[in-house]
Amino acid sequence: MLRDWREEDIATYAAMCADPEVMRHFPALLSFDDASAQARRIRAHLARAGWGLWAVEIKGGAPFVGFVGLARPDFRPGDVEIGWRLARSAWGHGYATEAARAALDHGFVELGLAEIISFTVPANVPSQRVMERLGMVRDPSASFEHPAVPEGNPLRLHWLWRLAAT
Fold first, then answer.
1. pTM, full prediction
2. Rounded to an integer, what distance in angstroms lies between the CA atom of residue 159 and that of residue 165?
3. Range of the domain at 80
4. Residue 135: C-alpha distances to residues 80, 130, 131, 132, 164 (Å)
5. What is the CATH number of the domain that holds 81?
6. H or E segment to which residue 36 belongs
7. How far apart, in whole angstroms, are the C-alpha atoms of residue 101 and residue 136?
8. pLDDT, position 142
9. How far is it, in rounded angstroms, from Cα 142 to Cα 123?
């Protein structure tokens, strides 16, 4: 279930962002304060825009396992990205794909977007598999060096995937 974030989600989110496995495709782990600030920015955007990175709750199960949703990357004006970050306990159950399909539907139907992108590092095969299940196609001509990742860092190169509205 996709929903607004709650105050009690923040501690779980911070623990996820301090987990080396969850964050292995990101340049650094986040401190509690940094993760908390990020969660508050996500909540504020949802409240303001009515869409964004929704909290994921497992019906009849965990009240919070991460986020899935849509965002506008600061460094790619005009683009809307679909993204996700889930706790290890939620991996391998199809939650990312199921929730991402709902987020894509919202983006194409409710927001009228013509295209939604996603991107990740070449080593992040699990996320690439989710993108493929969603029908996204990698655009090799659009690979880029992520501006928020320091030069020389092996996580700087990102592959871009696209999905057009049908």
1. 0.95
2. 20
3. 2-164
4. 16, 9, 6, 5, 9
5. 3.40.630.30
6. helix 32-49
7. 11
8. 97
9. 17
* Type of residue at 110: E
Q: What is each CA distance from 100 to 13, 116, 131, 150, 161, in whole angstroms? A: 18, 11, 9, 29, 14
Whether residue 91 is predicted with pLDDT greater than 90 in this model: the reply is yes
d(CA 139, CA 109) in angstroms, rounded, equals 24
Calpha distance 160→80 (Å, rounded): 12
For residue 107, the 8-state DSSP code is I
- 48's tokens: 């303001």
Single-letter residue type at 143: S
Structure tokens at 58: 């497992």
pLDDT in tens, 34-89: 999 999 999 999 999 999 999 999 998 889 999 999 999 999 999 999 999 999 99
Q: Which tokens in the block code for residue 28?
A: 């650094």
CB atoms within 10 A of CB 97: 16
How many domains does the structure of the chain reveal?
1
Q: How far apart, in whole angstroms, are the C-alpha atoms of residue 99 and residue 57?
A: 10
**Number of C-alpha atoms within 13 angstroms, CB side, residue 67?**
26
Q: Which tokens go with 141?
A: 């001509």
